[in-house]
UniProtKB/TrEMBL annotation:
Domain of life: Bacteria
Domain ABC-type glycine betaine transport system substrate-binding: 28-310
Protein's name according to its UniProt entry: ABC transporter substrate-binding protein
GO molecular function: transmembrane transporter activity
GO cellular component, one term: ATP-binding cassette (ABC) transporter complex
Keyword annotations: Signal
Signal peptide: 1-23
């Protein structure tokens, strides 16, 4: 009987230790909290799910694209970059993944970051023949310049942003002036956002540059127009992105690839926690709506993460195990 009791106690101890070890498998994980809204929300969602669902000791650390990814390659820290816009560093990152230093866990934005020229949905519904930028440029009378209604106006990207050079060169490439269009200078991000909000208030015409994911596109439904040309990377890099390009040719914005990047250390140590990051992916439409809620409520990234986890279990429970889902649901109530 004593031997049986001792065996039972020993077995229970081993099982208890195994359970504790399993809960601690994930260990410490550092998550880059990038300095824009969608990345901030995603970092906070990851922190909550990794802590509550998988027992990780998760910590958010300040980050930005180039410094964070460079640090991950050179120092192995932080462990996770939840929303890394990789196009600008793709060659370096591919080398690091080939060497096994880093790994692409998932495409965090399933449809990628989106840039281009847009019109309001009510304009697209009223004029279903306008599907491409050339269609819009053929009708300056439908998109009057705010300072001169005799010309069409295309709203430019804000001063100092890379997209301003791209838009200006693409405007030349598609012969905007020959179509009686002029660029509308918005001056700032607030000016650009304000122009769309004002157009929507009066159901007025609007045509110009914008991007996703953003709070504004979660609030105002816009339609991105197609570019009739295929993306030409060589011409894009050598001309469209250069302020002094003399002869830009028609091109198209490429999809901005947005990945969750992790260090090899975390891939090896994370276990089921790493598996979660390989499943976690969401579309721009979902992010836009969440960012709109965040802006309307002056919420922080943490606030928005809790709001999402409480209100969208149909989305995030597909990323996690049933056990982790139940733990997270209890924790965020």
């Amino acid at each position: 009987m004593k031997k049986l009791l001792a065996s039972t106690v020993l077995a229970a101890g081993i099982m208890g230790f195994a359970g504790a070890a399993s809960a601690e498998d994930c260990g410490r994980v550092t998550i880059a909290n990038m300095n824009w809204a969608s990345a901030e929300v995603l970092a906070n969602i990851d922190k909550i799910i990794l802590e509550e669902g998988y027992g990780c000791d998760a910590e958010l650390v300040a980050g930005d694209t180039n410094p964070t990814l460079t640090s991950m390659i050179e120092k192995g820290e932080p462990d996770v970059a939840p929303e890394a816009w990789v196009n600008a560093m793709r060659t370096v990152l591919d080398k690091a993944t080939d060497e096994g230093k880093l790994h692409y866990a998932s495409e965090s934005l399933s449809d990628g970051g989106v840039e281009g020229w847009w019109i309001p949905k009510y304009i697209a519904d009223e004029h279903p023949d306008i599907k491409t930028v050339e269609d819009a440029l053929a009708h300056p009378e439908l998109f009057p310049h705010p300072d001169d209604a005799s010309k069409g106006g295309l709203y430019n990207c804000p001063e100092g942003w890379g997209c301003r050079t791209n838009t200006t060169n693409m405007f030349k490439a598609y012969k905007g002036p020959d179509h009686n269009f002029e660029l509308v200078e918005t001056g700032s991000a607030a000016g650009l956002d304000g122009s769309i909000a004002k157009a929507y208030e009066g159901k007025d015409p609007w045509f110009g540059y914008y991007w996703a994911p953003t709070a504004l596109l979660g609030k105002y439904e816009m339609v991105k127009l197609d570019f009739p040309a295929e993306f030409n990377k060589e011409q894009w890099d050598s001309c469209i992105t250069k302020p002094d390009c003399a002869d830009p040719q028609p091109n198209a914005w490429t999809k901005s690839e947005v990945y969750t990047v992790v260090t090899d250390r975390f891939k090896q140590a994370g276990g089921p926690a790493y598996d979660y990051l390989t499943e976690r992916s969401w579309p721009n439409d979902t992010v836009n709506k969440l960012l709109a809620w965040m802006a309307d409520n002056q919420a922080t990234g943490e606030d928005a993460a809790y709001y999402f986890l409480n209100n969208s279990p149909d989305i995030w429970t597909k990323w996690v195990s049933e056990d982790a889902a139940e733990k997270v649901k209890k924790a965020v109530k």
